[in-house]
Amino acid sequence: MTSAPTTSSPSRDEPLAAVRRQSGARAVYDLLRQRIIDGSLAADERLTEPVLSARLGVSRTPVREALRLLQAEALVVEQPTGGVRVAPLAVTDLHRVYDVRARLEGLLARDACERARPADVQQLARLVSLMDAVRDHEDEVLRIGAQFHGQIEALADNRWCSELLRQIRGHVDRYRSLSARERVGTTDHVDEHREVARAIASGDPDAAERAMREHIERSAAMAAKALGEPPPPPPG
């Protein structure tokens, strides 16, 4: 098996340094959002302006604005007693988010299938091969998987689907990280993406939509397992 390419990982302090240089609400928002998605800021963790301001080395004004943006995205929730916490991760929410995602991305796969040219099909196949090469490396699997889905979204050219997906992207990405951890070391993720690519290559929009929805439904099941939901009983 081909090993993952060796790259120098950015220092954990680099994003913090960027925030201090820019000191704007957008930079603070981007950093906090990423740390919520990757779990560095844990679900239900209390966030306060003074602590975050001191930790990031910026004034409270950009922190306050960043928290407001995160609250609008429902990635943080306001507490009855004041202040905010990182939004919880819950199986019920997971299934709701992934049901919406499956419907939207299924439609994108259908649209992409109808528009795909040979070069587009080859690009999707290339991304699947790259994912196969790094299947044991969670970060790379997530990165290439996101690129694969982004390629389909761009090919579909459906701005309404894209806008609706953007609105739930942060929540999808939080649960996607859980799903990826359950799949590390398996070929499941690769096989599912390969099936989507093959369905698009076949020129059958129904098959493309079905393959994408099945892939996302399996991802939801993996994320639910990571949250402690027991697997469904076998059929029959």
UniProtKB/TrEMBL annotation:
<dbReference type="Pfam" id="PF00392">
    <property type="entry name" value="GntR"/>
</dbReference>
<dbReference type="InterPro" id="IPR036388">
    <property type="entry name" value="WH-like_DNA-bd_sf"/>
</dbReference>
<keyword id="KW-0805">Transcription regulation</keyword>
<dbReference type="InterPro" id="IPR000524">
    <property type="entry name" value="Tscrpt_reg_HTH_GntR"/>
</dbReference>
<feature type="domain" description="HTH gntR-type">
    <location>
        <begin position="22"/>
        <end position="89"/>
    </location>
</feature>
<dbReference type="InterPro" id="IPR036390">
    <property type="entry name" value="WH_DNA-bd_sf"/>
</dbReference>
<dbReference type="InterPro" id="IPR008920">
    <property type="entry name" value="TF_FadR/GntR_C"/>
</dbReference>
<keyword id="KW-0238">DNA-binding</keyword>
<dbReference type="Pfam" id="PF07729">
    <property type="entry name" value="FCD"/>
</dbReference>
<protein>
    <submittedName>
        <fullName>GntR family transcriptional regulator</fullName>
    </submittedName>
</protein>
<dbReference type="InterPro" id="IPR011711">
    <property type="entry name" value="GntR_C"/>
</dbReference>
<keyword id="KW-0804">Transcription</keyword>
